[in-house]
Design goal:
Helices cover about 35% and strands about 20% of the residues. With about 325 residues, the chain is an alpha+beta fold. Helix 1 runs antiparallel to helix 2 and helix 2 packs across helix 4. The structure holds adenosine monophosphate (AMP) and magnesium ion.
Length: about 325
């Protein structure tokens, strides 16, 4: 069993840092592939990398950002700003060499257990003050078996966001600020009128039209549809607040799915009793390292999964 406490603390610290950046100094750079990255991405990954290095020193890490990239693309004044923020939030003295070391900690290491970290998943949502998550999945034998997801904009009663974690086939939710962790399970809804579907906000991330055709072909045309950034979509399904999350790329997309965008979410949904598969029903293949080889992603409460797979195949066969 993994003692998640150090990671809960780290996710809370990372969320505090993200909030500070959002409120006071949002700045973003563009990395290769024209994706935005902010100083909060680096700050958050540094906090999580440091936590893994202290609590799980033998574990490996697969993470989105790197120390070299931090030095290369972040201007000096912004680096200084995030180093100062880290010092305040961690309550320790922090130098640039520490940040680089934490960003790179465990990367490229073959280990029994690997943490798959997305320091801010949904950076576009973060920049637009919508939804984003801080995620750390755990892989053993190239399979996501556990993980933690902090979701600052998750719609909770206290508006304080939520934190999710999963391991050993059980999934839990607690207030992000701390409190009792309650067991969560997927819902058993199956009829179209009550099914709640989710997809990305960003049109460039997935093919909204094709996904609408798939819902129609699955007999789920009447399902409600909500667009949310980030792996929060997985969390909503795990917590029984939605039943379907489709991610079908644009026809001309050459961009692979990235391991850190799906590892923690997959572990969470599976532990809550749901299913996460490729469009043919096979499990996502995390054995290739950073990139996954699947053609699309279907996440569901399990009960509607077969219908959706058949619908995707039908839509693909019709060349749509
Ligand atoms: P979501 O908020 O669910 O759309 O997912 C956010 C993730 O989409 C980011 O972390 C990126 O890794 C990924 N992403 C960014 N650009 C693209 C793209 N053009 N196509 C597919 N995924 C993308
Ligand atoms: Mg991401």
């Amino acid at each position: 069993m993994i003692d998640f406490q150090p990671m809960f603390t780290a996710v809370r610290q990372a969320a505090a840092l993200c909030k500070r950046v959002q409120e006071h100094h949002i700045m973003s750079s563009e990395k290769a592939g024209r994706e935005p990255v902010t100083i909060a991405d680096y700050g958050s990954q540094a906090i999580l990398g440091r936590a893994v290095s202290l609590a799980f020193p033998d574990d490996g890490i697969l993470a989105e950002e790197s120390g070299a990239q931090f030095i290369e693309i972040v201007p000096e004044d912004e680096r200084k700003a995030v180093i100062a923020l880290l010092a305040v939030i961690l309550g320790i003295e922090v130098r640039q060499t520490d940040v680089v070391r934490w960003l790179d900690h465990g990367q490229g290491r073959e280990a029994e257990r690997t943490w798959v970290i997305d320091p801010i998943d949904g950076t576009k949502g973060f920049l637009a003050l919508r939804n984003y998550v801080i995620a750390a999945g755990v892989m053993v034998d190239h399979k996501p078996v556990a993980g933690v997801i902090g979701s600052p904009a998750y719609p909770t009663l206290d508006r304080g966001g939520a934190m999710f974690h999963a391991q050993s086939g059980a999934a839990f939710m607690q207030p992000l600020a701390g409190g009792l962790a309650k067991r969560i399970k997927v819902s058993d809804r199956t009829d179209a009128e009550s099914v709640r579907a989710l997809e990305s906000v960003e049109k460039s991330h997935a093919n909204h039209e094709r996904m609408a055709r798939v819902r129609e072909a699955a007999g789920l045309g009447a399902a409600s549809l909500t667009r949310i950034d980030s792996m929060e979509k997985y969390a909503r399904i795990a917590a029984g607040g939605a039943e379907l999350y489709l991610r079908l790329p644009r026809i001309d997309s050459t961009r692979p799915f990235m391991a850190w965008d799906h590892a923690a979410g997959t572990a969470l949904v599976e532990a809550a009793g749901g299913l996460v598969t490729d469009i043919d029903g096979s499990p996502l293949d995390f054995s290739g390292g950073r990139a996954l080889a699947n053609q699309g992603i279907i996440v569901s409460n399990g009960h509607i999964h077969a219908r959706v797979i058949a619908a995707v195949q039908k839509v693909l066969a019709a060349g749509e």
